[in-house]
Amino acid sequence: MLELTDVTKVFKTGTFGGGALTAVSGVTLSIEPGEVVSLIGESGSGKTTIGRMILRLTDLTSGSITFDGSDVTRLEGRALHDYYAKVQGVFQDPFSSFNPVFKVDRVFEMIRGNYLRDLPPDAWNARLRSSLEAVALEPGEILGKFPHQLSGGQLQRVLIARALLLEIRYLVADEIISMLDASTRVDVLNLLGDLKARGLGILFVTHDLSLGNYISDRTMILRRGRVVETGVTAKVFGNPVHPYTRTLVASVPQLHKTWHELDRELQDAPLAKVGAAPGDGLVEVEDGHFVALAQEEATTT
Amino acid sequence: MSLSVDNLRVYYRTLRGDVRALDGATFKVADGEIMGLAGESGCGKTTLGKSLIRLDGRMRLVEGTVELDGVKLPLDDTRAMDEFRFRKVSIVPQYAMSALNPIRKIGRMISELLASRGVSYDETLPELRRRLGLVGLEDEVLDRYPIELSGGMKQRVVMVLSTLLDPSLLIADELTSALDVSTQRAVAEMLVEFRDRGFVRSTIVITHDLSILFQIADTILIMYAGKLMEKGPAALVVDDPLHPYTRLLVGSLPEVGVRYEERRLTGIPGRPPVLLDPPPGCRFRDRCPLASAKCTDEPPMVELVPGRHVACWEAAA
């Protein structure tokens, strides 16, 4: 299990680092194998920072991240190398994830050089083929090509295939759909669903509520680094309690319902009554559905 | 009849030949109509929008005419077009947030732009203030530099600026794509309000996001690989699409309420054709489940029922 406990990240800002910006504040989150958890937030909500901290691309200010009980933040050298064999990330812009000078095969060769040097050529080829197959790519259409010869959707799938070469357990997928065309983005989403069925735990970072709703088991809504509402996806979206979540849900352009119809629906559903908050400021409003107290809202805005 | 486009063809010149980005567009936009122009990347929607106001150096007008309020627009004569720009035809460009001059205060920039059209800033100022107020901006933004404004604020400034001379036609290119959801709604609804108040007569909203168009547009025009596929009332195009491409596209969009476990959506297999030397006939036929031998002939755009146009042999049969 991948567990984040009370994770906080403060960035220094200003020319001499005098200012401070709290990007993530007291976030507690766990991802189980075979589960997709969505992190949803607008720009500046800290969702990307959380993903980066899991991948050790950014340090924590306080709190802890553990992977099967061992502290991720202290891993170094060999141990970190082994951690990356289990936890990998894919990012928003597939075009800038590749070095344009080299063929796309290079990303696979780098994995081989770092992790699978002992694998005989036959076994390596079989594994490469099967991971390309898993992401529905035809090896002949991909291998030996330069990044500019492939579409965004293909490149994004190459990056997922690269992660699958290792027997990874968790994938951080940061806005991996945003740059793709509408007619192909759902295929990449479905791919995440298939990987989940194979036992992979996925942290799906997105600003798009409908994408998060489609694919995830649990959802966490972030605002300015704080958790606003979290829980089982169907409950968070079906019965949004926090005013901010409601604003978000009411602002999403839907395909078969106008904004005015949505406003009316939400008006009719009264805000749930929430009791006093325990330590972490989150209240359980129904089974598996937690919300931050609205009062706290007033102090942060 | 506000805008009338007839068989417009605009190609990009490249060393390897012409890229046929916009290959014969015929449509009309009525007075007061907000027309959504939707399609995937590379379908030619931005090319179409840009053609109506300014052809850049690589774009070549091959044929076609555009009439606005009964006057033919001199699209390929950039000097003559200057008469129309900003006064008659105006644009909110893609990445409008970076369209503002970073070294001018907003007010000074607007005054310079107005001066270039021979309009007095001082006389326009009361109306400018009123409109900034309408979109929720204080007068003091005029004394600010663009860097001091948030993305949503900049987008609103550009909206007010582009429509200050009450153009007949406004082209809004990916107006809301870079905004957060909550700001997105406010800016999108502004477009409708500007039309209702008569600041603009007709609007073309270019976007890849069909759901935004369902919210604010009167009609939707679907493009694919440089061709028009379908045009009709927004709700009908979304709820009951005529063209197979539109049908598959709408079917591939996840929305709130649809979950992977309950209903697995499917994308459209394949890729759009390369527009350097596209094959004859319907450009969607390689990916179309209904394609037949007939589709190697190009299907004409026909008005199937009043107000609903479609370019597909199967849909028209």
Model description:
The complex is a heterodimer of chains A (301) and B (317). Chain A has a domain at 2-86 and 168-232: Rossmann fold, CATH 3.40.50. Chain A is built from twelve helices and twelve strands. Chain A has helices at 47-54, 77-84, 105-115, 121-134, 139-142, 152-165, 182-197, 209-215, 233-238, 243-251, 259-268, 294-300, and strands spanning 2-13, 19-31, 36-40, 62-67, 70-71, 87-90, 170-174, 201-206, 218-223, 226-232, 282-286, 289-292. In chain A, strands 6-7-8-3-9-10-12-11 form an eight-stranded mixed sheet, with helices on both faces. In chain A, a hairpin with a 5-residue loop joins strand 1 and strand 2. The longest helix of chain A has 16 residues, at 182-197. Mean pLDDT of chain A is 87; it is low at 296-301. Chain B is an alpha/beta fold and 317 residues long. Chain B has two domains: 3-88 and 167-316, 3-Layer(aba) Sandwich (Rossmann fold), CATH 3.40.50; 99-165, no CATH class. Chain B contains ten helices and twelve strands. Chain B has helices at 45-51, 78-81, 106-116, 121-134, 151-162, 181-196, 210-216, 234-239, 244-251, 313-316; strands spanning 3-14, 17-29, 34-38, 59-68, 71-72, 89-92, 169-173, 202-207, 219-224, 227-233, 302-305, 308-310. The longest helix of chain B has 16 residues, at 181-196. The radius of gyration of chain B is 20 Å and the shape is globular. Chain B starts with a strand and ends with a helix. In chain B, 46% of the residues are buried. Classes of the chains: A alpha/beta (301), B alpha/beta (317). Chain A binds chain B through residues 42-43, 151, 181-187, 189-190, 193, 207, 209-211, 213-215, 233-234, 237, 247-256, 258-259, and chain B through 40-41, 180-182, 184-185, 188-189, 208-212, 214-215, 238-239, 248-250, 252-260, 264-268, 271.
3D shape of chain A: globular
The biggest sheet of chain B amounts to: 8 strands, mixed
CATH topology of the domain at 2-86 and 168-232 in chain A, which one? Answer: Rossmann fold
Number of helices of chain A: 12
Mean pLDDT figure of chain B: 92
Strand order of the largest sheet of chain A: 6-7-8-3-9-10-12-11
SSE sequence of chain A, one letter per element: EEEHEEHEHHHHEHEHEEHHHEEH
- Uncertain segments of chain B of ≥5 residues (pLDDT<50)? none
The CATH architecture classification of the domain at 2-86 and 168-232 in chain A is 3-Layer(aba) Sandwich
What fold name stands as the CATH topology of the largest domain in chain B? Rossmann fold
Distance between the amino and carboxyl termini of chain A: 34 Å
Radius of gyration of chain A: 20 Å
Write out the CATH superfamily name of the domain at 2-86 and 168-232 in chain A. P-loop containing nucleotide triphosphate hydrolases
Task: Return the domain count of chain B.
Answer: 2
How many strand segments of chain B? Answer: 12
List the uncertain runs of chain A: 296-301
Tally of DSSP helical segments of chain B: 10
Order of helices and strands of chain B: EEEHEEHEHHHEHEHEEHHEEH
Mean pLDDT of chain A: 87
In terms of DSSP E residues, the strand content of chain B is 15-25%
Structural class of chain B: alpha/beta
